[in-house]
Amino acid sequence: MEAETIITESLTKFYGKIRGIEDITVRIPSGGVGFLGPNGAGKTTFIRTLLGIIRPTRGRAQVLGYDIRHEINQVRDRIGYIPEFNTSFIPDTTAMKFVAFCARMNGLSYAESKQRASDSLFYVGLGEERYRKLATFSLGMKQKVKLAVALVHDPEIIICDEPTNGLDPTGRVQMLELIRSLQTDEGKNVILSSHLLRDVEQTTDYAMVISEGKIRAEGNIKELTANRRSTVSVKVKTKTEELLHALEKRGMEVWIEGAFIEVKTNPDVEKEIFKTAFQIGADIRYIGSRSSTLEDVFVSLFKEQEAPIQ
Ligand SMILES: Nc1ncnc2c1ncn2[C@@H]1O[C@H](COP(=O)(O)OP(=O)(O)O)[C@@H](O)[C@H]1O
Ligand SMILES: [Mg+2]
After folding, report:
1. Quick one: which of 40, 24, 51 has its CA closest to 191?
2. Is the CB of 45 under 6 A from ligand 1?
3. Tally of CB atoms within 10 A around 225
4. 82-97 pLDDT, tens per residue?
5. Which of 18, 57, 194 to mutate to test the pocket of ligand 1 (most atoms within 8 A of CB)?
6. Class of domain 4-221 (CATH, top level)
7. Is 27 in contact with 7 (CB distance < 8 Å)?
8. Which protein residue's CA is at the shortest distance from atom 27 of ligand 1?
9. Of 64, 79, 276, 299, which is the most exposed, with the fewest CB atoms less than 10 Å away?
10. How far apart are CA 37 and CA 308, in angstroms?
């Protein structure tokens, strides 16, 4: 498998004067990647540009080595796509017929289409219901049908745009588990777009944070969060300033955040803080590491913009 699935260079799309995405230059690693950003950030625009549905205003992109401008058919053959909004289902059709029809549209033979439609429907957990009419399906089941359609031509990359929108908690968990297992069990490259932190945290290991059409941060989710807040927080009754300076003198990286002294973590950090505090006669009221999640990163990135956090 290649190290990168998608490479973009200054990829930009303006809808007239409205910015969709601007100067996105990224190398998307293989495996699972989350596009995380508030509504209107540009996630859907980015995805639709990669699929050749939207023409970029400027910039370039390659998907698995194929150029989106000149080789869009090769690109589409290799991507399965779950669109954000409801696909126009044919309500009177069975799930089997619908998925097989989509497979035929993707160029599979009649026999292959039937086999792959059946396999895909079983994979998403709709094997038993495959001969039922789509009109009788719940929203969660319809989302699974969309996933089956995305899988039917056995693509290398699967892009899911807000796949949990409108689902109840059970439906959400099932959908995210399916997406995660595509990655871990089937070795697919999965891109999950979501405005929900918890969806991304639960599903992928790598995240790209998007807002106002630009990539604001990217990296392994563990590293993104660890770099931000690998600190120990200390609160003392008095002598905050003295402790701060004493810790600094010992070569530790320290700063003030509200009522707390933040100390950059090292293996013996807590022991050293206690020793220093004892030496200068400062009473420790609280000591502990405040754990960090992707949410902290997200919040700190978007605090200024007052983006909706969910
Ligand atoms: N067809 C369109 N015409 C005009 N503006 C659009 C269109 N599609 C999206 N936009 C604008 O582009 C920006 C990015 O939208 P979108 O890519 O849908 O973001 P997201 O998927 O992250 O919610 C938003 O400001 C949105 O209003
Ligand atoms: Mg969107």
Report:
1. 51
2. yes
3. 21
4. 998 766 778 889 999 9
5. 18
6. alpha beta
7. yes
8. 40
9. 299
10. 9
